[in-house]
Amino acid sequence: MKTNDMETTTLRSAALGKMSRRTWLGTAAAWVASGWAPTWAQNGRAADPVRLALIEGLSGPMGNTGEAVFRNLVWAAERVNARGGIDLGGGVRRPLQIARYDSKGQAQEALSALQAAVDDGVTLVAQGNSSAVAASLIEAINRHNARTPQRALLYLNYAAVDPVLTNERCSFWHFRFDAHVDMRMAALMSVLKDDATVRDVYLIGQDYSFGQAVLREARRQLALQRPDVRIVGEELHPMARIKDFLPYITKIKASGAQAVITGNWGNDLTLLVRAAREGGFEGKFYTFYGNALGAPAAIGDAGVGKVLAVADWFPNAPGEASRAFYQAFRQRFPNPADDYIHMRMQLMIEALAQAIERAARAPSASAGVLPHAQDIAYALERADVTLAGQRLRMRADDHQAQQPLMVAVMERQGAQGVPFDVEGSGYGFRVVKRIEAEAAEMAHTCRMARP
């Protein structure tokens, strides 16, 4: 954007209310990325948008994953705005706006970003990349809401999957839209249990709450599903600090393992699979995020038929609705480097819009005013949305989303079931198993305190 264009946009936004310069710059970036400008009007002035604060690592070693989230939320907001924005009653419709707050992937920075969002008057918050950060945010939001209930915050979690967040540490103010570790591991194990080529496995993960949960659940489910499989190595490594994973791959090869189970994500996954290729490891990878940014290109031909991933959805999911959905995303973001779409994030925004509009229709609601976070939360507990054939519903008891899961294997683009590749790499993922929501659902231990 040219300087004079930015100045024009700044002047146009004068009626959007008081916000910090840091938030404004992030907001302007979101408008530029989405091609959207505030054109709604109310009483002769630009209508205040409904703002969702994205608190995420947008810089540093995991910054690429944060930017992928931002693109997804921008695209989802565009869809809401294209149909007229969010209906707050009384003939008032407001646009949905994504405001960026960079946490640098650190819990303390995330708490500072949360305070900045509060200072800017935002009451809706989204975060996901890091369960450790998520736990800190839940605790901080619980305190804030107890202290200032009139300005309560609502937290939408799209990727922090430590099971405790909707079990022992569940909160009325927190909603998770991704399947948690135990659900994802069960999906992977439903494929591994039939893989007769795997006799020995190596467990490796990032040394924080999520990575520890992955290894713990891998041990438990292997004992249940494949008691004949030996765990020949287990290792946790510092998160986002390892530059060379070749020593780890050397140990994995020496162990004789035919497969690796890992929850690694971001640069830690990319570097791990790249080292596997360079180190000549020929076993399989059962992963949570093997289809993630950079991973398929990093592992190349060595991953064909060997790298498996679990997700709520893949671009090569069967069905014309799914195909059209993915093609629309690629048309919006044609740069291959931007090619990483999260269906659950699209469904999250649909659920949020549904909940706000449902709360706004309540008899006690004030027409044209964004409902209180508590009212939105009660409406969000009943969320049930469908997009491109994928349905998500929220379980009210623990605020854990329920949706189908899929396991897919890496193949060359053009192979049967792989019309689309990832990031222009020439490699895509073929869905080998779909687990319906009812089968993926798990019991919980949440004892939620409600306001």
Your description of this structure?
The chain is an alpha/beta fold and 451 residues long. The protein folds into 2 domains: 3-179 and 329-402, Response regulator (Rossmann fold, 3-Layer(aba) Sandwich); 182-311 and 404-440, 3-Layer(aba) Sandwich (Rossmann fold). It contains 14 helices and 19 strands. It has helices at 3-12, 21-34, 63-82, 107-119, 131-147, 181-192, 209-225, 246-255, 267-279, 295-299, 320-332, 343-360, 373-380, 437-440, and strands spanning 41-42, 45-46, 50-56, 86-87, 93-94, 96-102, 124-127, 154-157, 174-176, 200-206, 230-237, 259-262, 284-287, 307-311, 384-387, 390-395, 400-402, 405-412, 427-435. The chain has a 7-stranded mixed sheet with strand order 11-10-12-13-14-18-19, with helices on both faces. Strands 6-3-7-8-9 form a 5-stranded parallel sheet, with helices on both faces. Strand 13, helix 10 and strand 14 (307-311) form a beta-alpha-beta unit. It is globular. Residues 1-39 have low confidence and may be disordered.
Q: Rg to the nearest angstrom?
A: 22 Å
Distance between the termini: 45 Å
**Number of separate helices:** 14
SS content category: alpha/beta
**What oligomeric state is this?**
single chain
Tell me the name of the CATH class of the largest domain.
Alpha Beta
- Name the average pLDDT: 90
The overall number of domains is 2
Strand order of the largest sheet: 11-10-12-13-14-18-19
Largest sheet: 7 strands, mixed
- What do we call the CATH topology of the largest domain? Rossmann fold
Low-confidence segments, ≥5 residues, pLDDT <50?
1-39
- Shape type: globular
Beta percentage is 15-25%
Q: What is the total tally of β strands?
A: 19
Helix content: 25-40%
Please state the second-level CATH architecture of the largest domain. Answer: 3-Layer(aba) Sandwich
Keywords: Signal
Protein name: Leucine-, isoleucine-, valine-, threonine-, and alanine-binding protein
InterPro entries: BCAA_transport, Leu-bd, Peripla_BP_I, TAT_signal
Domain Leucine-binding protein: 49-414
